[in-house]
Structures are given as structure tokens and as C-alpha cells.
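Thread: quick sanity check before group meeting

JM: Hey all, I'm pulling together slides for Thursday and realized we never actually wrote out the predicted structure for the chain we discussed last week. Dropping the sequence here so it's in one place. If anyone has concerns about the input, flag it before I start.
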Amino acid sequence: MKNKLSLLLVLFACSFLSPQVKQHESAITAKEIIGHISYLASDDMKGRASGSKEIIVAANYIKDQFKLFGLKPLFKNSFFQEYSFTSDVKASKNNALSFKVNGKEIKLKYGKDFVTTPFSGSSKSKAKLVFAGYGISAPKLNYDDYKSLDVKGKIVVVMRNNPEYDNPHSEFEKFSSLRLKAALAKEKGAAGIIFVNGHLPKDFAGDFVKFKYDRAGGVKDFSVLHVSRNFIDKIFEAENLNFAQHQKMMKDSNKTASFEFVKSSAKLITEIKEVEAKTVNVCGYLEGTDPKLKDEYLVIGAHYDHLGMGGDGSLYKGTDEQIHNGADDNASGTSGVLELAEKFASIKNQLKRSIIFVTFSGEELGLLGSNYFVNNPPVPVEKMVTMLNLDMIGRLNGENSLTIYGTGTSSKWKDLLNEKNIASFKLAFNDEGFGPSDQSSFYGKSIPVLFFFTGVHSDYHRPTDDADLINSTGEEKILNYVFDVANTITNQSEKPDYINVPRNEQSSSGWKVYVGTVPDYSSNSEGFKLSGVSPGSPAEKAGLKANDIMVKFGDKKIENIYDYIYALQDRVPGDIVEIQVKRNNELITVKVTLGAK
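JM (edit): ok, ran it. Output follows.
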């Protein structure tokens, strides 16, 4: 209740920060386009990060425009659909580490002597210590730091990096992830893991792991810490060993050298808390006039959030913090929704179907807003006949090139898109419905989609994505084109059919095998929740569905998306894997034959 009241107060206060809304022309104009973009992408908006004060200012601006155009609120009496999400994690004051060496207790100070990693679970342990080298188990590379080492109930000390850390092309590189090492230690039965920087040249410096939230759940009920190297030196010395020499011996011999510390133990407490933030989707609609068709809805949407001051999604290479204004990404698409809403509102008596206009927050964090929208829909999703998505439509180039995704998701699309192309765009069609923007959330609900896009450029996800680089005249042409397409969909007697488009496996990247699962990044469930599966994919053929929560992949327990990624690393195309998922509180096991990327 307190959080909800706080958000309402912010919404109320921010409504006075929006500029005076002026009467606009009903036509789509370059002047109005650049006006919307210049406001949304101004420095005062500080990059419109989801959960920030500024994105609420942007939300109020969009709401005020919708009200001016005569749109109706879709959430009872509100244009806002509020939802919460995990915006960050923090270490509480309840984090502690101490060593007992030769019977003497050494208490460490948080932030100076050790830190808890952001992906640690909350746990406490008092146990013996074991040294497990680099914490890698790679039988195919004839290397296993855990071979003949009993770590059950013990705290594992592990070096960062890998045995061939100075070789950027080493096959060991994929085993260097600290998350992977922590998950492996937990799988082996360890009570916790302590990371330490090695001694060798070109190894990590003395800095601790950066405390940066990676948007995934932590290693549940398992402590993950990083300790200053001099304390591990002392523990080695108590065993009449030298840490630096021990590491060099491992490097020179390319062999593991794990062992249990006889004279040392550790006591640790970790507590990581999620930081919850609230944000809103902004949504209004125009009601159709046809007695039957008005209960069907065309959805026209765009995300209005961006990266704020940068963060993980930024491609900026500088060290100073800078505002990422996101003029093209995606004030341009937001402006497009506003202009289309205004034009359709001027002919609302001519509309047969109803039209929903929605701007999403949370896209840059993993389609959070659109995912929430389709899973908490203001109207039944089966009544949504099409979703048109506008994302980065402000950089039409001299060749008049316009890319449209989703062109295979209905048999109607290509003929319609070509017929309405009176501006002679050089059209590039991509048939797939799933892709890197909000239309994916709708396609996962079996809704035909189209995603309009003028392409990535050198200012993408950088502070230089500013309003003065927008081609507003070009965007005006695009929006008139989208209007013609949308107007046809709204008024034709038959709704567009839906087609499952098999994914082009050659277009996928990152993993050597292909499953076809679509992550739900908004989920806080323990496991790996699916927002959908790609049509024709191994996942679909095996019977996996949207909202399934994967909890086991083969013999690997899955607690978050990273566990899933790591489980795939050891697989090859053609492997048949048993996958266990939670579906409606039932455990279901399916067999998936892995494809090739």
C-alpha cells in the first residue's frame, strides 16, 4: 500500500512537470513528430529509465496527449497500467566473513576485505575450507578441479579466470564465468564459495567483483563472496604453502592441484535483497463503430523507456556517466504512436474495429512492459487481431530503406504492405514474429504482428542518439504508410489470419545448439520461465509452452536463465534431453531433440 501510494503521489506531482499541451493538427506532420521527440529525448528526461522519476514525467506527457485527442482510458478510469519489477539488488548490513586460522579468528570488513557478489543467495555457513583451483570441471578438456575432492558441506575457495587465462582463444574461456563456477560448486554440494584473484602476471588486479545486477535471480540459498588475496595468502601459509607458487605450479603443469585446508575454516553470512521499483504502461483506445467488429482490437504500440544514464545496455566506451537520450530509440516510435492516435481520433466515426494505442516501459530491461500487458490484458488477448510495433523509425536513410519484421505472421501482410507502399520505400521483409522488440510478447500469444524499423546506426545505445539527428520528414512518410496499413486492418471485414513462422536457425547466435525457448525476463520465479517458444522449434515439437517454468535440463537443476545457458554449453545438436517444467503447479517432463544454430 505504501509503495502504491508513493507512486500515485509521484504521478500526481509529475503531471505538473509536463509541458502545456497544445492543440495539434489531426494530420501527421514532421513538425509535431520532432516536437514530441525533442521533449521526450531532452536532457531533462535523463534517458527515461524505467523506475525513474523522469519516466513518470514522460508517462504523464503521453497520457495528456491521449486525453487531448479524445482517447478513452483502458484501465477502468486510468490510462496507466502499473507494474513492479526488480530494478536492482543490494547487500544488506547482514553480510559477514571470518576465518579461523590455527585456532585464531580473523574478522574481515565488508567492502574493504571482502564483498558479497550481486548474484549470491542469502545464506549462512560455518565449515571447513577447500581449495578447488579455478573451480572448473571440464572432462572433455581433460581437466577437473573437483576430481577426487570432497566439497560436500564445505566452503570452496576458487580463483577467478581459467588455466589458460592469457590465451583469448582458449576453450577454457567459456568456463570462466563466476556464476557458472558458483552453480557448479553448489551442484557438488558445497556450502558456499569464496572467489579470489590470482597472483600471476596479466591476472586480475586487486579489484573486487563489480556489484552490478545482471537481471537474473541469484544462486538460491548459497553464499558467493569475493575476498582480498592477502587473506588467502595467510591461509596457504598456515599449510606451509605459498599461494603464488601453487598457482604457478598449476599453470606450468596444466594440472589441477586441489586440496582441503587442514588448519583453517570459515564462517560466513550473506544477505542480498531485491530492490523493487514501479513503472507504468500508458494506454488509451478508440472504440469502433461496427456492432460486431468493435469488440476486436488493433494494437499500435511502442516502448517509451530508454537507458537513463547508460548502464549495462550502453555501448558507450567512456568512463564518465552520460545521459542516453534515446531520440530514435525510442522517442521516435513513441511519437509515432501519438501521431497515429491523433489522426485516427479525427476519423473515429469511420473505424469499424477498436484501436488500442499503448506505450510500454521496461523494453530495455527485457520487454517487461509488453510482457506484463499481454499477461494482464485490459481486453482478452484473443480479441487482439494484430499488433503493430514502432521501434526506431526516426533514421530513414537516403535510400528510403524500411525494414519490417513479422511479414510471415499473416498471409495478408506482404500484399497489403506492397499495395500501400505509395512512398516507394525500399522494403526489406523479415518473416519471423519473434525479434528484438515488443511485438515478440504479442506474437507469443498467437497474434499476427508487424514491426517497423529504419535500422541500427552508430548512435544506437549511445549518448549521441539525440533529436537533432532525427529525420522527421522521413518519419512522417513512414507513419502515413503505417496509417494506411492500420486503417485497412481496422476496417476490413475479416481479421488477419495467424501463421506460425518457423525460426530461421541460421539467424540465431550465441549458443551452439538451438532449442527455441523465448525467455520471460519479467519473471521472478525460481527456474527459467518461458514467455513463448519459436514455431517449428525443438521446444515446440517437444510440447513446451509459454508460461512453463523450466526447473531441470538433463541432470542440471535450473534456477535462473544462466543455469540454462550453462547447461546448453555441454550439449551438441542431436542430443535428446529430458526437460522438467512446472506447468500450472504440475511437474511435467518432456524430451527435446536439440537442433543446430
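AS: nice. Residues 37 and 451 are 19 Å apart (CA to CA). The chain has three domains: 2-88+275-491, 93-270, 505-596.
JM: adding both to the slides.
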